């Protein structure tokens, strides 16, 4: 066979750390009852009212080629939503509708970096980040954030990692996997680094409706940052539309024009009937979005109360997103070995912290995506297992 490109062969260099996830799937397929807390997938489906609009649009004939970067009406609606929530003037010319938040990240990097440029991002990080950077031709540079800081990145560490090749910084708040919501001081420190080193900042804000300790703040709203921040947003988490693959990129007009050209040579835009359903979903308002987020807030609080009653496992403060990061270093095991043993012996599946970078070694991530009783049963099993190991 003709040789594969180096780009494709190195996308997941170093692996992606998802062995526990795949093993859990094998066990479930074999009939083993696994309580699965590995991935951030809602335990509710897309609201029927949204699906009805999608169906009516498709049956009504909106199945042809669609607007490359979104219909004017949808872009106007997204722009108004962003402007209202951030206080930053935003028009349709600042919005590109794309096939999901993941493509928004790729498009932002394609617009902002050249081959060989460094892209910094705090570690722990979402597992796709290194591969997304490589796919755009960049070099991924993880910058450790510390558990003792609640995994809030330090501006000083980012500055040290900023060599002459640095061109962009990728951040994620609320954060997957840690649940950290970056403080105002952290956001302002990131802004100083970006201005001092003339960096683009790609801000992954797909969890902006899942903030538990205060309102979400976008880095784009920091004074002087709107012209260098590219915001990735999505309907996946806010509206339980993960399979619809619809999101957006917010940025300066020149960036959005470039993303339109990229769409012309890659995706050719999201399907029109999904755009129509998205437009309807966004008109449902903040109350609807709060209802989608509510189970994860409740489960976070239930789990934190349960964890507070024991000593074997620590917990990283979680200000948002649908996850908890637990510190299992007292057991003497790595996060990988803890998760594998928990799965094989107790049939509870969690993600090892090492799946998300070296800084999360000795931790495991829980996705709060099972019904309350099942979630608490899985957590109790994990805590008992950790206590046994700690002895």
TrEMBL record:
UniProt key word Transferase: yes
BP term (GO), one: amino acid metabolic process
Cofactor(s) required, per the database record: pyridoxal 5'-phosphate
Transferase is among the record's keywords: yes
Enzyme class: transferase
Keywords on record: Aminotransferase, Pyridoxal phosphate, Pyruvate, Transferase
Catalysis: reaction(s): L-aspartate + 2-oxoglutarate = oxaloacetate + L-glutamate
GO MF, one example: L-aspartate:2-oxoglutarate aminotransferase activity
Aminotransferase class I/classII large domain mapped to chain residues: 34-381
Annotated SUPFAM superfamilies: PLP-dependent transferases
The EC number(s) this enzyme carries: 2.6.1.-
PANTHER family found in the cross-reference section: ASPARTATE AMINOTRANSFERASE
Stated family: Belongs to the class-I pyridoxal-phosphate-dependent aminotransferase family.
Protein name as annotated: Aminotransferase
Biological source species: Jannaschia pohangensis
């Amino acid at each position: 066979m003709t040789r594969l490109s180096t780009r494709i062969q190195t996308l997941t260099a170093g692996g992606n750390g998802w062995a526990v996830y795949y093993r859990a799937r094998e066990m479930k397929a074999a009939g083993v009852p696994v309580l699965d807390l590995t991935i951030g997938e809602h335990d509710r489906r897309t609201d029927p009212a949204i699906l009805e609009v999608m169906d009516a649009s498709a049956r009504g004939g909106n199945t042809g080629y669609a607007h490359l970067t979104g219909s004017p009406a949808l872009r106007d609606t997204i722009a108004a939503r962003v402007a209202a929530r951030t206080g930053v003037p935003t028009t349709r010319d600042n919005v590109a509708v794309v096939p999901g938040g993941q493509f928004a990240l790729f498009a932002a990097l394609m617009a902002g970096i050249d081959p060989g440029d460094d892209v910094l991002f705090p570690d722990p990080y979402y597992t796709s980040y290194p591969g997304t950077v490589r796919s755009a031709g960049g070099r991924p540079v993880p910058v450790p954030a510390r558990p003792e800081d609640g995994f809030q990145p330090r501006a000083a560490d980012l500055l040290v990692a900023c060599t002459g090749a640095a061109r962009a910084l990728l951040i994620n708040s609320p954060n997957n996997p840690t649940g950290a919501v970056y403080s105002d001081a952290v956001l302002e420190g990131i802004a100083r680094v970006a201005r001092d080193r003339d960096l683009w900042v790609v801000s992954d804000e797909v969890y902006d409706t899942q903030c538990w300790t205060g309102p979400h703040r976008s880095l784009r709203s920091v004074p002087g940052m709107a012209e260098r921040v590219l915001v990735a947003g999505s309907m996946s988490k806010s509206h339980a539309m993960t399979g619809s693959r619809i999101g957006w990129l917010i940025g300066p007009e020149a960036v959005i024009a470039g993303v339109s050209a990229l769409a012309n040579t890659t995706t050719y835009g999201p399907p029109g009937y999904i755009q129509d359903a998205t437009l309807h979903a966004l008109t449902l308002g903040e109350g609807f979005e709060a209802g989608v987020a509510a189970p994860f807030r409740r489960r976070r609080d239930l789990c934190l109360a349960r964890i507070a009653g024991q000593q074997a496992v620590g917990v990283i403060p979680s200000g948002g997103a649908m996850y908890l990061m637990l510190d299992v270093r007292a057991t003497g095991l790595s996060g990988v070995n803890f998760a594998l043993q928990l799965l094989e012996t107790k049939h509870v599946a969690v993600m090892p912290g090492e799946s998300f970078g070296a800084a999360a070694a000795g931790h495991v991530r829980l996705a709060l995506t099972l019904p309350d009783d099942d979630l608490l049963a899985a957590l109790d099993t994990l805590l008992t297992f950790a206590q046994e190991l700690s002895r």
